[in-house]
Design brief:
Bound molecules: iron/sulfur cluster
CATH class of the largest domain: Alpha Beta
Number of domains: 2
Number of helices: 10
CATH superfamily of the largest domain: NADH:ubiquinone oxidoreductase-like, 20kDa subunit
Largest sheet: 5 strands, parallel
Structural class: alpha/beta
Distance between the termini: 54 Å
CATH topology of the largest domain: Rossmann fold
Strand order of the largest sheet: 2-1-3-5-7
CATH architecture of the largest domain: 3-Layer(aba) Sandwich
Radius of gyration: 19 Å
Amino acid sequence: MGVKKPVMGIVSFTCDQGCQFAVLFIDNIFDILKKYNVQYFHLLKEKNKKTDFDLVFVEGAITTKREVEKLKEIRKKSKFLVALGACACHGGVPAMRNFIENSDLKKYVYNQKTLKDSVEAAPIDKYVKVDYYLYGCPIIQDEFTAFLDAFLKKKIPEQFKGPVCMECPRRGKPTCFLRQKQPCMGALTRGGCDAICPKENFPCLLCRGPLPKANFTAEAKLFKSWGLSEEEVWNRIHMFHTPENKKNAKKD
Ligand code: SF4
Ligand code: SF4
Ligand code: SF4
């Protein structure tokens, strides 16, 4: 008799499903997934079942009461739950809606019933215990495969501890965006992405979320001294992560 494969699923809440696509486009994804009993992955499978999972990946922010209940059901069915991507980890792009009043949102939302059921967009750990986080918008494919490999060996990979700057080739050089008065948030952002954006000539936008002691107030002051408006600064800071309560938005 063969070894029993862990039952695995990827479920999605409010998002563009970009992290699921990132998984789907991993070169050898089918070989990797052969080691798992995949029961739920609707971009890949025709028939999907929300069963008892050994491992479940949850993508997307929580934006309605119905989603809160569904998420809690999935948690009950899952031995190990991983937040997949910035929307699930920090609220991500969907959480920008927290800065817009429901009365104004009516102009943009075509399914008005959804609005009645809506709650402030939030990361999944507002409602359930999360066992591990895979950060980024989208996730880093190598981190996902490393996690799956480790999980089979009953191990959990260590999270990268430092900021994006630690992996950035511009660090301490005149090419550092901050030295050029360009708003890069690498110093406040959880690293582990190999500083992919600064390497491609883009300032870091904080997609892997803030480090525990990130001082946004100081960063905002700096950016404003370079001519960015208050709104530009905070829109940038909150592009991928939003404080739970928008009233605290400028204090986190
Ligand atoms: S984290 Fe980014 S890529 Fe992933 S689902 Fe959210 S918006 Fe899409
Ligand atoms: S991540 Fe940004 S702030 Fe950090 S060293 Fe690189 S360019 Fe400078
Ligand atoms: S450099 Fe910043 S924005 Fe780019 S992937 Fe890394 S954390 Fe995300």
